[in-house]
């Protein structure tokens, strides 16, 4: 009996091993879906399911050759396949009809939703994504301009796999500060609580080169910069362009009405897609997205261009390094009011004039102007989302719920009606922390070869077209006149 | 009476061998047991005792018998017996024969002495420079001879004299091949017990260092020495070691591993419960911590007990290097233990069950590498681990120059070509290489083998149950380790049971002035090792003198 015990125990333990192996699958039996695109199908209720599957051998080969320009094929090492199905799961399973491997979603970090689908509603899609154990809650959601399928067919050069390229785009997007990445988890949370509406970043296809001056507005992309440089400098001008509504101006990448430029093959983050409930209701352009991000965003970045004085002897670029927003709902004589307090910190990263940053008043004036510019962005976002789309993307409802839960229960049903007319007070405090490696601008040549010259001695920087500068100044001034804008409150 | 016994002893063998009777036949007692030898007294007659010894040793070819006439008054007949190559010939010549033949005359002339009295006088005078043990029976006499000592027999004395003269061929004290250090003493134990003991004595010049000798092996009669420091070693542990040693009955003890197998607590555990080392400094350090050392003649490996798990991650150099470096080094060893144990298993688990845990580019790379590999990852892993074991074993057994060839074959042929032939993925090879290197990172060979052995079941578990299986395996190992004991000391001590003061010398080591207490479980009372207040300080500045002074611990 005593001798039987170890034997029995060993057998019992060994029998546990029988539970093994059932979900064993070798890594080379899997089709790694790198990005997932979901579009509306041809008939109502159907979906088109697009999977961008990495081809490992090609991927390894492209890496093995060391990123040299002379790669054999310019095509990315992916295989893209689309399937239409009655439901998402139906479509997905039909993939097996021609995909020789099991589709595997754990590495899909990007989910792109087609525009039309988004306008119909994305609740079904999110349910599918949420229900599935393989799909990561940390994968990022995007709304395509046009179809998701077309986005997945892009072939960016820097990152061979488009899905990974998009992921990297998101990672560095705070540099430009014009897109707020949203993970599946965050989107689900917002949809479930319903007190904050969803804004997903918008993806579009463009070319990497922006148009040189003469064809477009004579503002940006001065030295034929890459899209990054263009994006930064176009910040001010693009917002100018957006001010005239309807996308009349030739603003390159804005405007929901404006047809996109001939499609290139480069992916670009372009503002945000505003949802109400699970339905897409409209777009935010860059400037409005930044305004939205001042209130909602976690990572701040991007450039604000300000002039130190009203009569502009020059401009300076402020790079935002930190930002924090508080939403304070207030009850003023029974009326609900929302106070938005934004605190910003930035560095002077560029001075287009011989400014002496050792002068406290100059710095303070810059801070004030930065605050004004930021306020302008916030106001633009408010205008668009609150008045036009009537979607509470800022989480005002959530703020009210947190502060006045009882009141919220009463007004929850009516919130859609209350929200568009809610009074919003915007207070911006701005600080300048550093001037980077120097504290003085260089004395510029007094005789630039450009016709317009102002303020003897102090001139625009060479090559800097004057067109945008007064605009910028004016936008700053406009902000200052507003009573609730506050400059830097240095003690 | 004596002859009756002798005849009885010899009778059987004479019949068996069929030696004809008559004349004075050579004395053949046949195989004798220890008890019989002990009961056999040395006869007083010189001829009889010489022939007894010769007979007991079977008229061995290398037994040298020299009969001499001691120049005492009256001259005494004596015989010097030794085994040729076991003695130090110069020593014998200079310090035994010479005094006996030249000096005895002067010292023994005073009074006419004979027999036993002469023997004692000799010990006091001519042979006073060495250890001399009187041998009253055949057991003592033969044992001394076989140890390499010289037996002096005197006519008319029923006692012989064992004179130590051990010597002969042997290895010099060299730096040990295992456990090499950059900084630290370069001497290692040899195969000679007395050399080893002297190495130990030189390190610990305390009167409290106890050495107890006993003989193990019914045939080999190997000398085994139990060493400990009285007052530091736990009396009960010493008692237990002694008891376990005395219990051993075996034909021969050729290496300390024989002893180890008899005294360890759990013979079926893959983990070593007795520490073996070639380094005298390491044994000395063990003794100072209250451990008991066991030295076996013929083996350069000394054993120390009790042994705990953390000990196998130590190198004696840990105590000679600077503390911050030791922290890093021990951490590296600790990590490499898990790498050696788990790396192939984790690779198998990740590639067959948990592909989501791999970074995307890595997953791509593995998938690309496995394209066209005919085996599942488990088979691949087992194949490569096994290949490595074969290579390692071959490399160890082969003579050095051939070992080189084997490593070339292993690295180039197996590594490069296996990948090209599509038998293995490059990443698998990297995993195996990392496993191999990690397993060499910790100093104890027996612990290395334990991890190697356990790596196989871990791979199988990973193949069947994934990470879940690995956790299973780790839990099983943990449960086993927790219940392991080495001479009453829990194997995972000082982690489980947790002993905070002893953690100062476990995963890391603190400065000597900080490790103020000896290991609490080994030493009888938690005795102080380092008195307080020895932390080095800069010389006191003129100002703030008082303040500094107060800060001193």
| E-strand count of chain A | 13
Helix content of chain B: 40-55%
Give the helices and strands of chain A as they follow along the chain: HEEHEHEEHHEHHHEHEEHEEEHHHHEH
Percent strand of chain B equals: 5-15%
User: What is the C-alpha radius of gyration of chain B, as a whole number of Å?
Assistant: 31 Å
Strand order, largest beta sheet of chain B: 1-2-4-5-3
Short key terms for the protein model shown above:
heterodimer; A: 491 residues; alpha/beta; GMP Synthetase, Chain A, domain 3; 2 domains; 9-stranded mixed beta sheet; 4-stranded mixed beta sheet; 15 helices; 13 strands; 34% helix; 23% strand; globular; disordered C terminus; B: 553 residues; alpha+beta; 3 domains; 5-stranded antiparallel beta sheet; 46% helix
Brief write-up:
The complex is a heterodimer of chains A (491) and B (553). With 491 residues, chain A is an alpha/beta fold. Chain A has helices at 4-16, 56-64, 88-94, 115-120, 123-131, 148-152, 162-176, 184-193, 227-243, 286-296, 360-389, 396-403, 405-411, 415-418, 468-481, and strands at residues 30-40, 47-54, 78-85, 102-104, 110-113, 140-144, 199-206, 266-276, 279-284, 303-306, 316-332, 335-351, 423-434.
């Amino acid at each position: 009996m005593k001798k039987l015990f170890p034997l029995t125990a060993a057998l019992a333990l060994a029998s546990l091993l029988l539970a093994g192996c059932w979900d064993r699958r070798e890594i080379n039996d899997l089709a790694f879906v790198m990005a997932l695109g979901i579009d509306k199908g041809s008939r109502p209720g159907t979906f088109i399911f697009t999977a961008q599957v990495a081809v490992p051998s090609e991927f390894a080969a492209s890496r093995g050759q060391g990123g040299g320009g002379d790669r054999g094929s310019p095509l990315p090492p992916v295989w893209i396949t689309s399937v239409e199905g009655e439901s998402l799961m139906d479509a997905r399973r039909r993939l097996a009809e021609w995909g020789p491997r099991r589709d595997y979603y754990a590495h899909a970090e990007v989910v792109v939703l087609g525009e039309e689908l988004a306008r119909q509603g994305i609740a079904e899609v999110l349910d599918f994504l949420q229900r599935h154990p393989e799909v990561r809650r940390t994968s990022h959601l995007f709304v395509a301009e046009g179809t998701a399928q077309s986005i997945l067919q892009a072939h960016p050069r820097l990152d061979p796999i488009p899905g990974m390229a998009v992921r990297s785009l998101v990672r560095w997007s705070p540099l430009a500060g014009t897109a707020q990445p949203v993970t599946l988890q965050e989107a689900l949370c917002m949809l479930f609580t319903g007190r904050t509406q969803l804004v997903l970043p918008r993806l579009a296809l463009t070319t990497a080169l922006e148009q040189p001056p003469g064809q477009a507005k004579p503002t940006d992309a001065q030295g034929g910069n890459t899209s990054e440089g263009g994006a930064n400098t176009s910040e001010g001008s693009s917002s100018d362009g957006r001010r005239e509504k309807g996308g009349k101006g030739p603003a390159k990448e804005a405007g929901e009405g404006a047809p996109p430029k001939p499609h290139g093959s480069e992916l670009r983050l372009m503002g945000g897609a505003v949802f109400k409930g699970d339905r897409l209701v409209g777009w935010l352009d860059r400037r409005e997205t930044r305004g939205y991000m001042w209130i909602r965003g976690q990572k701040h970045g991007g450039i604000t261009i300000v002039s130190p004085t009203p009569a502009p002897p020059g401009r300076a670029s402020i790079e935002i390094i930190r930002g924090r927003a508080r939403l304070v709902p207030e009850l003023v004589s029974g009326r609900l009011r929302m106070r938005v307090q934004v605190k910003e910190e930035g560095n002077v990263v560029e001075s287009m004039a011989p400014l002496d940053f050792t002068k406290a008043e100059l710095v303070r004036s810059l801070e004030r102007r930065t605050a004004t510019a930021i306020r302008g962005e916030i106001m633009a976002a408010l205008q668009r989302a609150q008045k036009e789309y009537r979607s509470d993307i800022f989480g005002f409802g959530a703020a009210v719920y947190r502060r006045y839960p009882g009141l919220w229960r009463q007004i929850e049903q009516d919130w859609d009606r209350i929200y568009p007319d809610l009074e919003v007070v915007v207070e911006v405090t701005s600080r300048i922390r550093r001037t980077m490696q120097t504290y003085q601008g260089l004395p510029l040549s007094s005789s630039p070869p450009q016709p317009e010259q102002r303020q003897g001695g102090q001139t625009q920087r060479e090559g800097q077209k004057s067109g945008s500068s007064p605009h910028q100044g004016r936008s700053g001034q406009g902000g200052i006149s507003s009573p609730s804008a506050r400059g830097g409150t240095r003690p | 009476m004596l002859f009756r016994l002798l005849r009885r002893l010899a009778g059987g063998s004479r019949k068996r061998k069929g030696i004809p009777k008559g004349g004075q036949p050579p004395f053949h007692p046949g195989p004798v047991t220890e008890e019989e030898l002990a009961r056999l007294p040395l006869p007083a007659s010189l001829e009889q005792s010489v022939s007894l010894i010769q007979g007991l040793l079977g008229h061995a070819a290398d037994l040298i018998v020299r009969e001499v006439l001691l120049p005492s008054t009256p001259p005494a007949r004596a015989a010097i017996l030794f085994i040729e190559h076991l003695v130090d010939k110069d020593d014998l010549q200079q310090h035994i024969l010479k005094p006996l033949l030249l000096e005895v005359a002067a010292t023994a002339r005073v009074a006419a002495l004979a027999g036993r009295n002469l023997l004692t006088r000799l010990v006091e005078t001519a042979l006073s420079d060495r250890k001399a043990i009187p041998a009253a029976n055949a057991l003592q006499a033969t044992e001394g001879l076989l140890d390499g000592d010289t037996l002096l027999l005197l006519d008319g004395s029923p006692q012989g004299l064992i004179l130590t003269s051990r010597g002969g061929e042997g290895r010099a004290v060299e730096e040990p091949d295992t456990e090499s250090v950059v900084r630290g003493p370069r001497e290692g134990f040899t195969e000679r017990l007395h050399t080893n003991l002297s190495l130990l004595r030189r390190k610990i010049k305390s009167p409290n260092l106890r050495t107890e000798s006993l003989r193990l092996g019914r045939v080999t009669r190997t000398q085994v020495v139990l060493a400990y420091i009285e007052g530091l070693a736990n009396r009960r542990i010493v008692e237990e070691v002694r008891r376990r040693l005395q219990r051993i009955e075996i034909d021969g003890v050729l290496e300390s591993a024989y002893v180890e197998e008899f005294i360890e607590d759990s013979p079926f555990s893959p983990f070593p419960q007795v520490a073996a080392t070639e380094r005298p400094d390491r044994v000395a350090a063990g003794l100072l911590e209250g451990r008991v050392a066991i030295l076996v003649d013929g083996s350069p490996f000394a054993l120390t007990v009790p042994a705990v798990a953390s000990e196998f991650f130590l190198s004696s150099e840990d105590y000679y290097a600077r503390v911050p470096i030791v922290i890093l080094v021990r951490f590296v060893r600790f990590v490499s233990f898990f790498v050696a144990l788990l790396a192939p298993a984790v690779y198998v688990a990740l590639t067959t069950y948990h592909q989501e845990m791999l970074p995307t580019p890595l997953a791509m790379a593995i998938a690309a590498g496995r394209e066209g590999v005919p085996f599942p990852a488990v088979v691949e892993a087992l194949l490569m681990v096994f290949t490595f074991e074969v290579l390692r074993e071959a490399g160890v057994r082969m003579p050095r120059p051939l070992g080189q060839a084997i490593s070339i074959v292993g690295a180039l042929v197996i590594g490069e070509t296996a990948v090209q032939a599509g038998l293995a993925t490059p990443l698998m090879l990297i995993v195996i290489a990392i496993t191999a290197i990690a397993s060499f990172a910790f100093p104890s060979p027996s612990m290395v083998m334990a991890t190697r052995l356990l790596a196989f079941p871990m791979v199988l578990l990973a193949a069947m149950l994934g990470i879940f299986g690995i956790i299973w395996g780790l839990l099983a190992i943990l449960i086993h380790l927790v219940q392991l004991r080495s001479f009453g000391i829990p194997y995972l001590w000082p982690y489980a049971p947790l002993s905070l003061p002893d953690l100062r010398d476990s995963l890391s080591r603190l400065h000597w002035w900080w490790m103020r207490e000896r290991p609490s479980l080994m030493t009888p009372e938690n005795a102080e090792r380092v008195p307080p207040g020895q932390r080095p300080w800069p010389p006191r500045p003129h100002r703030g003198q008082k303040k500094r002074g107060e800060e001193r611990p």
